[in-house]
Amino acid sequence: MKKEIDELVGRINGELSTVSWTPIWYFYRSLGFENLVDLYTSCDIAWLTPIRDGMNLVAKEYIATRTDKTGVLILSEMAGSANEMHEALLINPNNFEQIADALHQAINMPEEEQKTRNTAMQKRLARYNVEKWARDFMDSLLTHKQMDPPYVARRLTVDLTNTMMEKYRKANNRILFVDYDGTLAGFKNDPKKASPDKELIDMLDALYKQKRTDIFIISGRDKDTLGKWFEGKGYSMIVEHGVWISEEGRDFQLLENVKNDWMPKIRPVLESFVDRTPGSFIEDKNYSMAWHYRNTDPDFGQKRASELNTVLTSLIANDDLSVLNGNKVVEIKSSNVNKGRAAMRMLARKDYDFIFAIGDDWTDEFMFQELPEEAVTVKVGRMKTQAKYFLEGIPAARALIHRFTEI
To answer: Domains in the chain, ordered, with CATH?
Structure first.
């Protein structure tokens, strides 16, 4: 990279330099504080484009040195300081067109606008001194201490598992609700590649053949994908968070009356975030849409997901829609549909004396919350949950499901 930059600087300076003027001053070394302040005060634009940065004090130093309040700061939104320097021209360092536009805007920015932006940032920097940082940090600690403790599930120990298996063996009618992604199968960069392996198929076959046992794969997946993966099998499936149901291998039927006329309005928003977030993509379902960011830079993807949540929340306020935040995915669906509602409809059909549910995602919390008190609910992963118990990871979840096949 240094070699490439050296060549570019040399070529530009060789082509455009005059006897009295050099377009690029290039220093590949650290600079003393006084020299650095000289550069801060003499330059018209500070252009800082880190891909990842915890704070970036250079941005703050530049603004602090502008005693005449002129100058323009172009700052990467990946820098931590971007969260409190909103008046800067914030850019995505991966978007070259946006960078070029920001440079053009900075070069042509009126002096009055420069002073307005920098005055606001200077006042904020003066307030956010080390004493304020320390007070805010201590206040946050004290506030957290006073908060109600979160609902914490118990680890599903060997003794608890054995007790549960004994209840399962004695039960006359049993029902199992099992999530797919993150519970039975691992996540893939391409969701369509997370197909079931032979071991999983054999395990589900064994459960399906058990007498007095109803098993439902309950997933946010679309019906076409799961229908293809389990074609010819007799498992019952509830998909798209409760929109469709397939009972014992039959064709999918609508479980809820939902609309999808809102999707054309939401799609342009998701597409704009795909354009601005390299590695993200949209998954279209029959009655919901999902924005996946598993392939993005982790920090950048999380930042974009937070922005998308804010945009969608304001956009769908009057449309009876919900935004679900899953594992590296943001999904938009009807508020009238969730796994808990679907599960309760299945329970109303028969008198079950053993109810079991397992899942890893926030979408499964609806199910944990709605199921009756006597139900055994298990969260895959160590997170805040409404489930009674938790297990560490997919292997432990599959081992637990396998125990049911041995009864």
So the answer is: 22-129 (3.40.50.2000), 154-256+337-405 (3.40.50.1000), 263-334 (3.30.70.1020)
